Amino acid sequence: IAGITQAPTSQILAAGRRMTLRCTQDMRHNAMYWYRQDLGLGLRLIHYSNTAGTTGKGEVPDGYSVSRANTDDFPLTLASAVPSQTSVYFCASSDSPSTGDTQYFGPGTRLTVL
Amino acid sequence: GENVEQHPSTLSVQEGDSAVIKCTYSDSASNYFPWYKQELGKRPQLIIDIRSNVGEKKDQRIAVTLNKTAKHFSLHITETQPEDSAVYFCAASRPGGNQGGKLIFGQGTELSVKP
Hints:
A: mainly beta; 0% helix
């Protein structure tokens, strides 16, 4: 069992380009989340999905979009990347969207926008 | 919305000493408070959590205390070891509807345990 995987591991991207970060989990978890991690700011929620077919906005959703066509995959798209989107991106999943359910994190994607 | 403040941002202790990290939160409806440990270049991993119906929880050398009246919670690590060196994050979430499960994180504490 792989758990939760992300791709790519790292990416350097020119500003203005479109980029999709991939996230896949094989735990059949209902809820999935995207966070960005910046030094001194901790982890901030970008978007989330409580179940396949639904998505919601987190703390910092601007410039990002997500889709949840099925239970396993939760891609994050940057339509037109900007340097301020340089960050480490973590995907996470939990069995239930209820409060108090452990979130399991993927290994992260380090994105640099030049 | 919820806001979580975490202190200190860095903490250095001698091996064998105790370490305490504190967090405050703003939303009185929050009822779940996990702590994550993140080693350099790795993903965050849950080490302990507490719910609002409990004041203290312990797991071997780590413990978490919660004061709902004051809206703060703390992580205590006793008999620290070099492998405890990492960044620690607190978080909070509130129940109900589409808000359930959304974690708001503190800014992190970099703990260094010196041999």
